[in-house]
Amino acid sequence: MLTDDDLRLAKLRLLRMHYESGVGHIGGNLSALDIILLIFQEFLTDSDRFILSKGHAAGALYIALWSVGIINDGELATFHKEATRLPGHPPAKGLAGVQFATGSLGHGLSLAAGTAYALKAKSESGRVFCVTSDGEWQEGATWEALIFLAHHKLDNLTVFVDHNSLQGFGSTLDVASMNPLDEKIRGFGIDVEIIPGHDLSKIREVTTRIGRRPKVVILQTVKGNGVSFMEGVMDWHYRPLTADLYERAVREVAGA
Amino acid sequence: MRKQFCDALVKRSAKPDMHFITGDLGFMALEPLRESMGSRFLNAGVAEQNMITVAAAMAKEGLDTWVYSIAPFCYARPFEQIRNDICFHNLPVKLVGNGGGYGYGVMGPTHHAVEDYGVLLTLPNMRVYVPAFDEDVEAVVMLAGANDAPTYLRLGRGEPPTGYIAPAYAPWRQVCQGQGMCLVATGPVSGLYIESCLALPEATRPNFWIVSEFPMREAGIPPEFFDQLSASETLCVVEEHVARGGLASELLLLLAETGRSPKRFKHFCAQSHAFERYGSQSYLRGRSSLDAQTLLCFLGAL
Fold first, then answer.
1. Residue B129 CA: distances (Å) to CA of A16, A137, B6, B107, B164
2. What's this model's pTM, rounded to 2 decimal places?
3. A117, A119, A127, A149: best mutation site toward chain B, by most B Cβ within 10 Å?
4. Most buried one in A12, A166, A170, B22, CB count within 10 A?
């Protein structure tokens, strides 16, 4: 079972990886890290599939793969470097545990729906887990996917929305509000739950419960979760860490 | 070619892992396939982006996945889905576009597909088939089905001369021999030129080749073609596709790279999506000078 210590260790490794590579997107990685780790650590079996629709959280995905032994520590140091297998968004080839190259938003839900449909067509019992951002629900293709997965009653699919309420250049509310997102999705005939996005026990409970319809779990997350000066601050969508801020972030997370 | 395509897929549908997805098209044509396939025939609705990505995911899961729409809807709207989800992962999804070129002539410019294979050939791993005659379709379906890579089939309506027996399918077929220039065409529009070329005296009669598979490889081109081109030094390309990115671009690049560029070159191709007046496929071909009479005038001027 994923513990607070595991989470702390993963968060520190994520921060170090981003700091050493000088790469941004740290805020959205920290908001998604808990759910991705939990799925990899506690739910994902060989029969299941995981699709990261918010490809800009590749760092959190790589940390999850590191936590289950697919990527070693030395390779994390190559993140975003020349000739790396770990680019800023998940690669198409060469990395076990990565189903699809994602990063152009709005593809993951259809990838997950198609995978769930195929598993059913093959009479396989695996589940499909998908993590989306919140801003990417502005992409029209996500709504095409919703129609499809609801129509085909893909109850083997669970979608998590990392709803940190901040996108690249503003808040989701100010840029192009989809509120109330849960009601819109529910209107498609899909089970929707809204839960605190960093409450592991709640996420476990919701993920364990399988219904007769596809499920979307809206995780109320915090951008930059766990690092006080990043939390809820839009700048940390893209901003890289300086040495001072990195040390401050590490002190906070290590002491938490 | 829809009937031949449907018949070929009905035969293939005995494969239990074969799945067919349509973007709500195929009325009055694909009903036999729907009956044959049962739940493996999926109408994904009017949602091409989702359809293509779902197909990619199904192929990733090992299913033999075919996607059908009319040609313009098959590749243009979901281009990024084809690139990212199918081609980046080299997934063997078969994309089938009906009515390539001006096939849906008077329906208007949104329904024309005159840059389809050129655009798709820019993508990694993509293979393209452009059958010329209805009789080609069964062979092309077999070949496409055996591919382990992304594949696009451009279907149209075969237009051979009356009574003409099409030669057996091959990626390159010579349909007319003479002492004249080299004429290379692709797709059903090829059929418009056969009769006129065959009627010419040998001295001016072109060596007429029909090409149906892309991308081109030097090893895949018959050596006779190179010999004929070397002798005549003149190449004419005909295609129902815009000038850039299609058969002419492929062929000229290959010829240049192999030191065989022709001295004289003429390209008859689709001029535009957007005209001020519309009509049948034949009318729109005419607006693009895609007709035998124009070719004969060109030959006369040589």
1. 50, 36, 16, 24, 22
2. 0.95
3. A117
4. A166
